[in-house]
Write a structure and sequence with these properties.
By secondary structure, the protein is of the alpha/beta class. Helix content is 56%, strand content 12%. Residues 490-630 form the PTS EIIA type-2 domain.
Length: 630
């Protein structure tokens, strides 16, 4: 195993509860997709000790095995590698929270029972982790002291990260850290009782009639606690931090709240600190819905770019005004959080990635849009929230099951039954409500389903239900909906599959040339396919994380639909990611509507570590076909 894999294994050995992949990624400063890939190697290694990595879907992972097996693994790990990650986290924490702002090398030696050489070695390890957070270690010559240099905002974000690493650990039942757990960590780490902060916040939010989730409340508690710690060190947020106060009443109430905290914690909240708390309230809630903000900040234009991206990737049309407006409202606080460096935790992140991997992948691609507009990219938490909105767009565009209701109980009962079915089953499109005499009109149509209150003679799918639509009826209709897509042909019965496996390509240009050459030789594509791939990639990277990308071109350059799977021997840089598996989509306009659901099912495989490894191991096209044909 490599050094990072040893590091991950040490983290797992030190945890008795479930821990998320995001937490591990944050701890060692790599992407979650890297963690997923590393866990495959670690799983193989620990099996030799009779251990395994237990995975609770959507919740977290932990190391499983007998006490004896785990202890033997621990001893062997200590013998093989000297990993001191937890220690350098602790050293970083000491450097940030020290009341005198500077720390002597000798004091670190005493506190951590290390030699001077060992402390200097640890500080060297810390530097890359801090550098990515715009923080550096400054050595004060002739004084034997060190201090951290960086903006107050970056230092606070770093301290917040350290606390999150502690509080993101899950309990044995798989529940996210509660307020009690966060309170315990704050008391232990920061030596502050956060209860007055919590009580005052709840009173403030209730007075403003703001409906906050527990996650948002805990985030605010942690932010304000960190402010109190830094104010106690004489460190105010930068004087140049300024925002426009659009809601005077909210700011006034925030000021009163801060004045109460001044007395409780013996600190002074400056105007800058009050404005920062005000910004957290405004930018973490959907309170800001005024039409003036829609136009003045170009949120509609940003939403339009995201929608266009979704439409191009999936060859669909998104016209539902409610979905579009919902996206705009989400972008207002999102953009302000991005601009102000505010982190909003997403407790459902793992479940979103498991349930909506295709939407998460598309949301990840929007980072190119945010990078160009804000020179920043979204965190995985924000990508997860955005994925929910994209999922709404995709569901709206999914092919619905064309349904006719046949009822013999009269117009009133027929319409009541139809309304119940429309309300309960969003994947059914009720074309008409008819009597038995009109059945012949639909026998030759593209109708998918008859829902009827009596037995009828038809070659099409039919379900008999009670006019009252009982629970048993609902279950049978749901079962039909679940099985509907699986009755249609498999994905590669409808389109072709091509592969280029185990390549040694090192850059995008060579890769595109080879794919174009292969597809053009078999008359799948028109001239201009490669140029369109490059143009789209320059606008927005098609990487979806998990070492996977989905390049695609405009259907106008496609003669026959094909998906070309390319695997590399070594990952290549792709935007800001590394990628070693590519799914090149060349789909005609006419084929998109029929295979969109199948593509969604394919995307669900792409975040599976096992699936990814099997693709990389495949040496023949038949092996790939068995993996991807759904």
């Amino acid at each position: 195993m490599n050094k990072r894999e040893w590091q991950i294994l040490e983290i797992l050995l030190n945890q008795t509860n479930l821990i998320t992949r995001e937490t591990i990624a944050e701890m060692i400063n790599v992407s979650v997709s890297s963690i997923r890939n590393d866990l495959t190697s670690i799983q193989d290694y620990v099996k030799g000790y009779g251990c395994e990595i237990d995975n609770v879907r959507g919740v977290g992972i932990k190391l499983g095995g007998s006490k004896e097996s785990i202890e033997k693994l621990r001893k062997d790990l200590i013998a093989k590698v000297d990993i001191t990650f937890e220690r350098y986290l602790q050293i970083t924490y000491v450097l940030i929270t020290n009341r005198h702002n500077t720390v002597t090398i000798e004091s670190l030696c005493d506190q951590f029972y290390l030699s001077r050489t060992a402390v200097l070695s640890e500080l060297k390890k810390i530097q890359p982790w801090l550098a990515k957070r715009n923080i550096s270690i400054e050595y004060l010559k002739g004084k034997g002291k060190i201090q951290l240099k960086g903006s107050e905002r970056d230092l606070r974000d770093c301290l917040s990260t350290l606390i999150k690493i502690q509080t993101n650990i899950l309990d044995q039942n798989g529940f996210l850290s509660s307020y009690q757990t966060i309170q315990e960590n704050i008391i232990e780490l920061l030596k502050i009782n956060p209860k007055p902060i919590k009580d005052g916040l709840i009173e403030l939010l209730q007075s403003l009639k703001m409906d906050y989730s527990n996650n948002a409340l805990n985030t605010l508690i942690m932010h304000i606690t960190i402010s109190i710690v830094r104010l106690g060190q004489g460190k105010d947020i930068n004087d140049d931090f300024d925002i426009q106060i659009d809601y005077e009443d909210i700011y006034h109430r925030v000021s009163l709240f801060c004045n109460n905290l001044n007395q409780t914690y013996d600190v002074i909240f400056t105007d800058s600190e009050k404005k920062l708390i005000y910004s957290y309230l405004i930018y973490s809630n959907d309170l800001v819905k005024q039409e003036s903000l829609f136009s003045s900040h170009n949120y509609k234009e940003l939403a339009s770019q995201i929608i266009t991206l979704v439409e191009e990737i999936r060859s669909i049309s998104i016209s539902n005004e409610e979905i579009v407006n919902s996206l705009v409202l989400h972008l207002i606080p999102l953009c302000n959080r991005l601009n102000n460096g505010i982190v909003l935790r997403n407790p459902l992140l793992e479940q979103i990635k498991e349930e909506y991997p295709d939407s998460f992948g598309i949301a990840w691609m929007t980072n190119s849009i945010f990078k160009k507009q804000f020179e920043k990219t979204l965190s995985e938490d924000e990508v997860g929230y955005l994925a929910i909105h994209i999922e709404s767009m995709l569901e709206q565009a999914d092919r619905l099951i064309e349904t006719v209701i046949v009822c013999s109980q009269g117009i009133g009962i027929s319409q009541l039954l139809a309304q119940k079915i429309k309300n309960r089953f969003k994947k059914l499109h009720v074309v008409d409500v008819i009597s038995e005499n009109d059945l012949c009109k639909f026998e030759a149509s593209d109708l998918d389903l008859f829902i009827t209150t009596f037995s009828i003679n038809t070659k099409k799918n039919s379900i008999i239900v009670s006019p009252l639509l009982l629970e048993d009826d609902v279950n049978r209709i749901n079962s039909f909906i679940d099985n509907f897509s699986t009755k249609s042909p498999k994905l590669f019965d409808e389109i072709k599959l091509e592969t280029i496996l185990k390549c040694d390509y090192t850059n995008q240009e060579i890769l595109f040339e080879e794919v174009e050459k292969k597809l053009k030789s078999k008359h799948y594509i028109e001239e201009g396919f490669k140029e369109d791939l490059k143009h789209r990639e320059s606008k927005c990277s098609t990487s979806i994380g998990a070492y996977t990308a989905i390049p695609h071109a405009n259907p106008q350059f496609v003669k026959k639909s094909v998906i070309c799977v390319v695997t590399l021997q070594k990952p290549m840089n792709w935007g800001s990611e590394e990628v070693d598996v590519f799914f090149f989509l060349a789909i005609t306009k006419s084929d998109f509507s029929s295979i969109n659901i199948k593509l969604r099912n394919l995307y669900k495989l792409l975040y599976s570590e096992t699936f990814h490894k099997q693709l990389l191991d495949a040496e023949k096209q038949d092996q790939v076909l068995k993996l991807v044909d759904i």
